[in-house]
Specification:
The complex is a heterodimer of chains A (212) and B (467).
Chain A: E1 7-14, H1 21-24, H2 44-47, E2 79-82, H3 94-102, E3 106-109, H4 114-121, E4 126-129, H5 132-142, E5 149-153, E6 158-161, E7 167-168, H6 173-181, H7 185-189, H8 193-206
Parallel strand pairs in A: 1-2, 2-3, 3-4
Antiparallel strand pairs in A: 1-5, 5-6, 6-7
Chain B: H1 6-14, E1 15-18, E2 24-27, E3 30-33, H2 39-48, E4 58-60, H3 78-94, E5 97-98, H4 109-116, E6 124-127, E7 141-144, H5 147-156, E8 158-161, E9 165-172, H6 181-192, E10 200-205, H7 207-210, H8 214-222, E11 231-233, H9 238-244, H10 253-263, E12 276-281, E13 288-290, E14 298-300, H11 314-327, E15 342-345, H12 353-363, E16 374-377, H13 382-390, H14 393-400, E17 403-404, E18 425-428, E19 443-446, H15 449-458
Helix pairs in contact in B: 2-5, 6-8, 12-14, 12-15
The chains are: A alpha/beta (212), B alpha/beta (467).
């Protein structure tokens, strides 16, 4: 995984609650056996006016002018601001793959669905939970003629918006460490080979039916 | 030792190590694998030159992409076909047991695992699929993971986890006649909301839960994820143990009895403390129908479509307006005046033998109503299909005008050819009514198998208890 470095990015405000992973990346794109290339189909059903199919050229498809990602103010957005329970539904990692492939690096919401939240960290995406009233304020600040920009400082856990006061945020220390160092979970776990083997030996005696 | 919840016990038994900030390495006993969320995981193993830690701890079956008609002709969609062929090739390369499309045991992973006795009490079990929560019905800690974690489990038989909080949902008393496990879980989701369980593992308890068959318990745990919780749990009792006896992957003889003695301890201790307790009176639950695009948008069949104007929370009201617009419904419409175009009986929520029996009981001696374009039954596995055919259920459905299909996920998520067309309305026994879930522009109403059957034969939603 690439290291997560500090950056300043444009905020795209997606003002909907309960955005599910079927909306983030519709099922027909899950047939791919690759990890990349999902960005053009992020939010496909909301973003385009026609029906998307895997493998097609997306550059000529009719865009939905009412969908916020198509608003010229938010071109090149790397921060998605949204409402509660973002990423609910299926466990498809294609959802964070699509968000990251599009160029998003930080997601801000009052809450995220558990599986999705966890999947983000495996793909260099930082999901940040902020209180609903702070999210409300950011929505208010992001709807103006010029896009809101936020500077993201992960080591110090501070968001600095182009308008308003700096906002501190929480992040699990282990996940933060993995993002900053770009660490691979499997590599970390394999450092504990002996502990896994010892556990297995004990369990083969205690619970032999699990190994039959 | 302090009183522990069932979740505490399962967690403690699987803890390989834990560091000072609470990050734990949890041992995973078994993994179910399907074609959609595994190709990139196997590719990851190959890229790093890794082999599965314990190949025999995995069981693979294609389900999402498989056709439910003319199976002998193979998969027409080349992209779907490559995904299924990739799973087969990966299983051969890495030595993983694979039930192919022509195997009578093939079906939806969450139907196949329990049916084969691959799922056992006291296990940790994962799958790259959110409905892995289903297996919690056996007192197993079972949850969905993403593809990176599928690879992690293949490579190490472990996952890096933090412990969740514990919630008890106690359903006290008895369910009324004609009220099923599906109505029960939809009512729970309606009560706590789709984010109500976020950050929790939910244990379901109370008389109404323990009166359910294993099939009913699986339906409840299956939809725990729709309440926001990754895992649902039900304590082991004799119903659990009786279900497992003689299943192909279950232990046999003395080993089974040794296991069963341990499994009987898999319940929360008296006085164990939960971070949240929700009590629900079973007798008050009516047959449920969803009206919107989130499973929490649910009402009893005798109710009307709710009015966003009566909702105080502006974010919620906006969500309701969007949902009504998408669903083509007006506030105040009686649920019983809503007329589906299609009826789908299937999915990992409701495609077990008991579900098919409940639907057939309603259908028997009746005909699919004129306004219904398609009514289909998709058994959860080849073995469920065989059992249903042995009981003559296929004839009941076929004589009434239903289609009787081969096993798979089918129109629950429409990755194969079974889907809704834009604007079509469906009475569905599946688990998600999200926008586009059953086909772009499709409108899903989630119901129990009996309620879906009742809608099929009357042409509109109706209280099955009055038929």
């Amino acid at each position: 995984m690439e290291k997560f470095t500090d950056f300043t990015g444009v905020v795209c405000p997606l003002d909907r609650a309960n955005v599910d992973t079927d909306a983030i990346i519709p099922k027909q794109f899950l047939k791919s056996i690759q990890r990349t290339g999902f960005g053009p189909n992020l939010f496909d059903e909301w973003r385009y006016l026609d029906r998307g199919e895997p493998g097609q050229d997306n550059s000529g498809r009719p865009l939905n002018p009412d969908f916020v990602l198509n608003d010229p103010r938010y071109t090149g957005a790397s921060i998605l601001l949204t409402r509660e329970n973002f990423g609910c539904g299926s466990s498809r990692e294609h959802a964070p793959w699509a968000l990251a492939d599009y160029g998003l690096r930080v997601l801000i919401a009052p809450s995220f669905a558990d599986i999705f939240f966890n999947n983000c960290f495996k793909n260099g995406l930082l999901p940040i939970v902020l209180p609903a009233e702070v999210v409300d304020r950011l929505f208010a600040a992001s709807g103006g003629p010029a896009a809101l920009r936020i500077a993201v400082d992960l080591p110090n856990q501070i968001l600095t918006p182009s308008v308003g006061a700096p906002i501190p945020f929480e992040v699990d220390p282990f996940r933060k460490h993995c993002l900053i160092e770009g660490l691979d979970d499997i590599g970390l776990t394999l450092q504990h080979l002996d502990a896994i083997r010892a556990y297995e030996s004990r369990r083969r005696v205690e619970a032999p039916w699990l190994f039959s | 030792m302090a009183a522990r919840t069932l979740y505490d016990k399962l967690w403690d038994e699987h803890l390989v190590r834990e560091d000072e900030n609470g990050t734990a390495l949890l041992y995973i006993d078994r993994q179910l694998v399907h074609e959609v969320t595994s190709p990139q995981a196997f590719e990851g193993l190959r890229l790093h030159g890794r082999r599965p830690w314990r190949p025999e701890a995995n069981l693979a079956v294609p389900d999402h992409n498989v056709p439910t008609l003319n199976r002998r002709l193979g998969i027409a969609d080349p992209v779907s076909r490559i995904q299924v062929e990739t799973l087969e090739a990966n299983c051969a390369e890495f030595g993983i047991t694979y039930f192919g499309m022509d195997d009578r045991r093939q079906g939806i992973v969450h139907i196949v695992g329990p049916e084969e006795g691959f799922t056992l009490p006291g296990m940790t079990l994962v799958c790259g699929d959110s409905h892995t929560s289903t297996h919690g019905a056996f007192g197993a800690l079972a949850f969905g993971v993403g593809t990176s974690e599928v690879e992690h489990v293949l490579a190490t038989q472990c996952l890096i986890q933090r412990k969740s909080r514990a919630m008890l949902v106690s359903v006290d008393g008895e369910l009324g006649r004609g009220v099923t496990a599906k109505d029960l879980v939809l009512a729970i989701i309606g009560a706590i909301g789709t984010a109500g369980g976020t950050g929790y593992v939910i244990e379901f308890g109370g008389d109404a839960i323990h009166s359910l068959s294993m099939e009913g318990r699986m339906t409840v745990c299956n939809m725990t994820i729709e309440a926001g919780a990754r895992a649902g749990l039900i304590a082991v009792d004799e119903t659990t143990i009786d279900y497992l006896r003689g299943r192909p992957f279950a232990p046999t003889g003395a080993l089974f009895e040794q296991g069963a003695a341990h499994w009987r301890t898999l319940k929360s201790d008296e006085g164990a403390s939960f971070d949240r307790v929700v009590r629900i009176a079973a007798a008050e639950i009516q047959p449920q129908v969803t009206w919107g695009t989130s499973p929490e948008m649910v009402v009893p069949v005798g109710a009307r479509v709710p009015d966003p104007a009566a909702e105080a929370d502006p974010v919620k009201a906006a969500g309701m307006r969007r949902a009504l617009d998408y669903m083509g419904l007006k506030p105040g419409t009686p649920i019983t005046e809503i007329r589906p175009d299609k009826v789908f009986i299937g999915s990992c929520t409701n495609a077990r033998i008991e579900d098919l029996r409940a639907a057939a009981e309603v259908v028997k001696g009746r005909r699919v109503a004129d306004g219904i374009k398609l009514a289909m039954v998709v058994p959860g596995s080849g073995l469920v299909k065989e059992q249903a055919e042995a009981e003559g259920l296929d004839r009941v459905f076929l004589e009434a005008g239903f289609e009787w299909r081969e096993a798979g996920c089918s129109m629950c998520l429409a990755m194969n050819a079974d889907r809704l067309e834009p604007g079509e309305r469906c009475a569905s026994t599946s688990n998600r009514n999200f926008e586009g879930r059953q086909g772009q522009g499709g409108r899903s109403h989630l119901v129990s198998p009996a309620m879906a059957a009742a809608a099929a034969v009357t042409g509109h939603f109706v209280d099955v208890r009055g038929l």
